[in-house]
Write a structure and sequence with these properties.
The chain is mainly α and 340 residues long. The protein contains 12 helices and no strands. Helix 4 packs parallel to helix 7 and helix 8 runs antiparallel to helix 9. The chain is globular.
Length: 340
């Protein structure tokens, strides 16, 4: 997801798209994300086939189950890129069918994750009061990623019922995700205010809050682009997107301050550091969509600054992940301590 967001967000920058010299780099990054998606899905399939008991235990673990939202967002993130830099890799004829398959798969998984994980949280998981985590947002933001993807695919269809159905479905997915997110965000904020900072290793998860904020702003812009000749769509995209992006930037500063605090206290590297990538990427595309719609250079500057942050976070997380895999530290059992 983080790798795919680097390619997709880079494509969103600038009114005329990326500079021709950058296009091959973005295409290469997208190709890497597609290869990583294939490898991860193959590994998960083997795991479910040969270790079904452990896979079910993960689903019934309240700390692990929300990450099934990533399984839904991953094909959607790669599929969005297939309609952007992926065209240079797949070719014009193959890009749309590949994107359509990934969209269909991602939509099914997104809806399933958004229903099954909260159901298990209510029926099977037992979480004490004040334990709300930003990780709970993962299955809820997955439908919003699909909602941002749908309009991109809809414009590839001829006018008619198919296109309208896809746009209405995208709008419904956006509404479901936004309202579900509104039920969880206050719980996360209350947990931080009443119980203090998260444990060190979980601190990067604060960046996950940016996901629904940036992705919903992106979805609003994509839906407006897919409805040409309807001025109210542009107006609604701006009226919704500007306040939400403002809150996203406020949260970014707050989360960044808490991450700096955690670093000073010995923040260990975990795969949770990838939370610094995809959520920031959604803010890049959201800010770029607003800049395109309003024509404000200030918003373009925000999008560029966020993209620099995204690429930096992606490079750091990627290098640390490779080093951890080669050294075996990421494959060992995690420490049991929850030091603050």
């Amino acid at each position: 997801m983080g790798t795919a967001s680097v390619a997709a967000a880079g494509t969103a920058l600038g009114a005329d798209g990326p500079h021709p010299a950058v296009r091959p780099l973005l295409a290469a990054v997208w190709a890497l994300s597609a290869l990583l998606l294939t490898a991860v899905w193959a590994a998960r399939s083997v795991h479910w086939r040969h270790h079904r008991d452990q896979a079910r235990a993960h689903l019934l673990d309240p700390a692990v189950a929300p990450f099934y939202g990533c399984a839904a967002m991953a094909p959607l993130a790669v599929g969005i890129g297939a309609l952007g830099p992926g065209r240079d890799v797949l070719g014009e004829r193959a890009a749309v069918p590949v994107a359509a398959v990934l969209f269909a798969l991602g939509c099914v998984l997104a809806v399933a994750a958004a229903v099954v994980v909260p159901y298990l949280l209510i029926v099977r998981h037992r979480t004490p009061p004040g334990s709300a985590s930003p990780v709970w947002l993962l299955p809820l933001v997955a439908p919003m990623v699909a909602a941002a993807f749908g309009p991109l695919l809809a414009v590839e269809l001829p006018p008619g019922d198919g296109r309208r159905t896809l746009l209405v479905t995208s709008l419904g997915l956006a509404g479901a995700s936004a309202l579900a997110t509104l039920t969880v965000l206050p719980l996360v904020a209350a947990r931080l205010i009443h119980h203090g900072p998260l444990p060190l290793a979980l601190t990067p998860s604060l960046f996950l809050v940016l996901g629904p904020l940036g992705q919903s702003t992106t979805a609003a812009g994509q839906l407006a682009d897919a409805l040409p000749g309807r001025p109210y769509a542009d107006l609604l995209a701006v009226v919704y997107g500007v306040p939400v992006m403002g809150f996203a930037l406020l949260w970014l500063v707050l989360a960044g301050a808490l991450v700096i605090r955690a670093v000073r206290r010995g923040l260990p590297f975990t795969l949770g550091w990838w939370a610094f990538t995809f959520p920031v990427g959604t803010c890049v595309t959201g800010a770029a969509a607003l800049a395109h719609r309003t024509g404000l250079d200030a918003l373009s500057a925000v999008a560029v600054a966020l993209y620099v942050l995204l690429v930096t976070a992606w490079a750091v997380a990627g290098l640390r992940t490779v080093r951890g895999l080669l050294g075996g530290t990421l494959l060992s059992a995690p420490p049991s301590a929850t030091a603050r």
